[in-house]
């Protein structure tokens, strides 16, 4: 299946706008207690930031506290497997990233199926990537980075939130397409990985454009390239990956969404979908996420299911091209 595009996103948003206008009536009260929104990555990372913005709106709409719970480990595998085993009552939800599909591809023994074991609720946002390095790095462009990697195979390192995450796949894809050898350094989240890049102990990383603008503006990071089809208005001086000789990165923008355990009652899923889409439609929430660098994107549950099915095919192609294995590091 072809990569998800902004045009596809627009159709999803328009196609299901009516669902956000009103929540369906439920046979029994929901929710009856606080709702847990489980994030598989460390606090302060892109997924966590978006989840906390969403949780505020959901708390107000549902009349119960929506609490973000960070359960880190194994590129969100720990969180995903835990939520898959939770009661299907809508009180425990998962914020999914591309790791939802990637872990299932890389790990044959993963204790969940990305489609069968979850009830899709809604997409939240698309997250383009931006390649960054420390201001004192010995290169100031993607071309310079590649040249350094060719001069000293293995000496250039790239950080990530863990094996199979967006930063790992993008770094591996760059190494494969530039025919260089780079060293992957995984961390337990994007935030700690970025800290090591800023300190110069890791050469560079591809980071989702969430909350990174301030560090770049303050000179704490040097931006090298961006994975959007056109230059981004927030980073007008940063070339696209296509401009620096590596087209196609824009096809691998990851989507964030909300999943419930399989067999969650359809009425609960629809109620959650309406609440989430109502949140994303609020001007203040929409602008807040856009200011962070996210491309806001909601959907119906069926549209999100279609997106997830396409994700399996899309990331499998990247993994095969970059020859990534479960023990890659």
Count of discrete alpha- or pi-helical segments spanning 4 or more residues = 11
* H/E element sequence: HEHEHEHEEHEHEHEHEEHHEH
Mean pLDDT: 89
Low-confidence residue ranges: 1-25
Q: How far is the first residue's CA from the last residue's CA?
A: 28 Å
**Percent of residues in beta strands?**
15-25%
Q: In this structure, how is the largest beta sheet organized? A: 6 strands, mixed
User: Could you say how many structural domains there are in total?
Assistant: 2
Please outline what is shown here.
Strand 6 (157-160), helix 6 and strand 7 form a beta-alpha-beta unit.
Structural notes for this entry:
The protein is α/β, with parallel strands linked by helices. It contains 11 helices and 11 strands. The strands form 2 sheets. A 6-stranded mixed sheet has the order 2-1-3-10-4-11, sandwiched between helices. It has a 5-stranded mixed sheet with strand order 7-6-8-5-9. Strand 6, helix 6 and strand 7 form a beta-alpha-beta unit.
Characteristics:
single chain; 329 residues; D-Maltodextrin-Binding Protein, domain 2; six-stranded mixed sheet; five-stranded mixed sheet; 18% strand; disordered N terminus
């Amino acid at each position: 299946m072809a990569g998800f595009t902004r045009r596809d996103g627009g159709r999803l948003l328009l196609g299901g706008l009516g669902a956000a206008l009103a929540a369906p009536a439920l046979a029994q009260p929901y929710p009856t207690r606080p709702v847990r929104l489980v994030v598989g990555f460390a606090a302060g990372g892109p997924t966590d930031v978006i989840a906390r913005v969403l949780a505020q709106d959901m708390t107000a709409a549902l009349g119960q506290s929506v609490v973000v719970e960070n359960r880190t480990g194994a590129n969100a595998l720990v969180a995903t497997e835990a939520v898959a085993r939770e009661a299907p009552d809508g009180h425990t939800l998962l914020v999914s990233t591309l790791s939802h599909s990637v872990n299932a591809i890389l790990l044959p023994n993963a204790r969940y199926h990305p489609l069968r074991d979850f009830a899709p609720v809604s997409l939240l946002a698309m997250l383009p990537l931006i390649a960054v390095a420390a201001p004192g790095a010995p290169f100031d462009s993607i071309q310079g980075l590649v040249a350094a990697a060719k001069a000293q195979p293995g000496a250039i390192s790239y950080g990530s939130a863990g094996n199979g995450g967006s930063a790992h796949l993008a770094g591996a894809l760059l190494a494969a397409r530039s025919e260089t050898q780079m060293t992957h350094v995984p961390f337990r989240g994007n935030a700690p990985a970025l800290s090591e890049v800023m300190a110069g102990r890791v050469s560079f990383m591809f980071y989702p454009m969430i909350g990174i603008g301030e560090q770049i503006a303050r000179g704490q990071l040097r931006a090298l390239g961006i994975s959007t089809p056109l230059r981004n208005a927030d980073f007008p001086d940063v070339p696209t990956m296509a401009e620096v000789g590596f087209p196609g990165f824009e096809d691998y923008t990851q989507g964030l969404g909300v999943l419930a355990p399989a067999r969650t009652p359809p009425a609960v899923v629809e109620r959650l979908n309406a609440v989430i889409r109502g949140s994303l439609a609020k001007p203040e929430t929409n602008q807040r996420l856009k200011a962070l660098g996210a491309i806001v994107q909601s959907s119906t549950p069926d549209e999100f299911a279609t997106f997830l099915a396409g994700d399996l095919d899309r990331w499998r192609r990247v993994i095969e091209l970059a020859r990534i294995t479960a023990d890659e590091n």
